[in-house]
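Input.
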Amino acid sequence: MFEKYLGLPINASEHGAQIDSLIGWVHVLMAVLFVGWVSFFLYTIFRFRRSAHPKADHDGVKSHASSYLEGVVVLIEVALLIGISIPFWSWKVSAATTDSPDTVKIRVIAQQFAWNIHYPGPDGIFGRTNIKLVNEQTNPIGLDRTGDPQAKDDLITINQLHVPVNTPIVCEVTTKDVIHSFALPVMRVKQDTIPGMSIPTYFVATKTSDQLREELARTVALPAKKKFDGMVAMQDYNGPDSKSIVKAGRAVTDAVAKRLLDAGITEVRVGPRVPAEIACAQLCGLGHYRMKGFFTIHDKAGYQAWLVEQAEEQ
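Output.
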């Protein structure tokens, strides 16, 4: 309900419903406070207007109703904090620090203006890093591949976070320079990256990127009024001669849309090429607007295949 009426992004996280519920109830509380205080303000303006009280009353109002109302507000806020927020945060911290054989651990190193993602490789152990080895083109995190045997199988991607579905994920976030904020909106995850600190964030993805893309898909009438920037076809489209115009998963461009229309196809079903992103939720410099990464959720077989592919490339 709150996701629908508050315009929240799709929830693909195991704990997302709890976050959405908390956001929703905080909005309800703020709405009640807004209506209550505005009503009280208007009442006082009318009740103590000059025409009704031409002479000042130095004794003032003797009622304690406003104090009681303030007490109720404090109690509600305490209930939200102690009853929901603190227990939820405690669970998150406990989950992030628990050593489970199923947990996938990833390091996220922020910098102006990119996300460096570090995977431990098949041995499950992160290799040693050294600031003296940092090279922004070839080794952005200073991984010591020659001096540390455990670093040889490690994987590094830039602005590309890949995780398996239905698997506990712990991202250790840190930064090379200023404060950033690691945000995965579909996971309901947001964590500031602080220089000199490594902070764990925990989530379990419940939907793959393909499922997210399917949920976000829409049918567009041709000719389209807007450009198809970043959109892909959700199914194969063939012409009258059975020749392929565009295959499922391929980009739908203006040229493709024209060929579809020429073939007599007046509607095309499209979805976002990248249904989930990594965002920086903290103003971190002039290039903050372009500090955006791509977040991909695989099924477990697809994730293993991606790891093998990356190992071959690196």
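The first helix runs from residue 2 to 5.
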